[in-house]
Amino acid sequence: MTSTAAPQSLICGLIGFGIQGSLTPAMHEREGAEQGMRYVYKRIDLDKLGLGVEALPELLTAAERMGFAGLNITYPCKQAIIPLLTELSDDARALGAVNTVVLRDGKRIGHNTDCSGYAEGFRRGLPGAKLDRAVQLGAGGAGAAVAHAVLSLGVQQLTLFDVDQNRAAELAVSLSERFGAGRAVAGTDLPAAMAAADGLVHCTPTGMAKLPGLPLPAELLHPALWVSEIVYFPLETELLRVAKAKGCRVLNGGGMAVFQAVDAFRLFTGAEPNAGRMLAHFASMVSA
């Protein structure tokens, strides 16, 4: 067997808090089965285990000893995991956040597939979108990954808004250091920024099943906008419903959810996943 061939059997997992509803395990296991692998993907739920981030060193060591090929990492561990790793990808280093750890040959290599996953979903879902100016709501962990992706896709100026203005300002500074002066700015006037924007990127929890509603006044949406969402429960949020009714091009949060898993599957297995098949499986689970 060559080093690039997919292993016949492997075990991976997801570490995070309150992850019983995650669709990631099912996506990985189904794609593994479709490729003829015995692929087991475990939830390691800190909430269920009564553990906090201080358990990460122990959990990583246990995963290595049990022969795990890799781990996905979610809230609240994406930053806390970094000091425990031996290497970081460029994206993970720039973001200061890791959502995928490959365990191989005694090494722990951290990646961020949230960033690449969002970018791939955008390229497929909004081809030809105008990228001069965009507004982003939310500058937290997911927001940082998405903002990096948005600028790497070619948005010339990204205006960031967050309930914590300092967080938006800090993210704008780090983005401008990486992508060039003035590429990202912290916004102060949402109506003015929206009037000038080509697109809106939504990275707050508003619109989730547990937190319904709109993240901004509906009258700020206009037909020339594209609107991109990262919430995927439900797949059509109130923001997307209202934006569509106003004539906007819209992109739901499913793409990022699927393509972060597509990229992680590739890293864990060395095999090329079938993205179309994973998208279809995800859509069937969300609509069930």
Quick synopsis:
The protein has 288 residues and is an alpha/beta fold. The chain is 40% helix and 19% strand.
Describe the structure.
The protein has 288 residues and is α/β, with parallel strands linked by helices. It folds into 2 domains: 9-111 and 256-287, Leucine Dehydrogenase, chain A, domain 1 (Rossmann fold, 3-Layer(aba) Sandwich); 116-252, NAD(P)-binding Rossmann-like Domain (Rossmann fold, 3-Layer(aba) Sandwich). The protein has 11 helices and 12 strands. It has helices at residues 24-34, 46-49, 56-65, 90-95, 113-125, 141-153, 165-179, 190-196, 238-245, 254-269, 275-287, and strands spanning 9-16, 38-45, 70-73, 87-88, 100-104, 107-111, 133-137, 157-161, 184-186, 199-202, 226-229, 249-251. The strands form 2 sheets. A 6-stranded mixed β-sheet has the order 2-1-3-5-6-4. α5 (113-125) crosses α6, α5 packs across α10 and α10 crosses α11 (275-287).
How many structural domains does the protein architecture include? 2
The number of distinct β-strands equals 12
Which quaternary structure do these chains form?
Answer: single chain
CATH architecture of the largest domain: 3-Layer(aba) Sandwich
Report helical residue fraction: 40-55%
Average pLDDT rating:
95
What is the N-to-C succession of helices and strands?
Answer: EHEHHEEHEEHEHEHEHEEHEHH
What's the end-to-end separation, in Å? 39 Å
What is the CATH topology classification name of the largest domain? Rossmann fold
Backbone CA Rg: 19 Å
Give the class from helix and strand content and strand pairing.
alpha/beta
CATH homologous superfamily grouping of the largest domain: NAD(P)-binding Rossmann-like Domain
How are the strands of the largest sheet arranged?
Answer: 2-1-3-5-6-4
Proportion of β residues?
15-25%
DSSP helix count?
11
The CATH class assignment of the largest domain is Alpha Beta
Unreliable spans: none
Largest sheet composition = 6 strands, mixed
Shape: globular
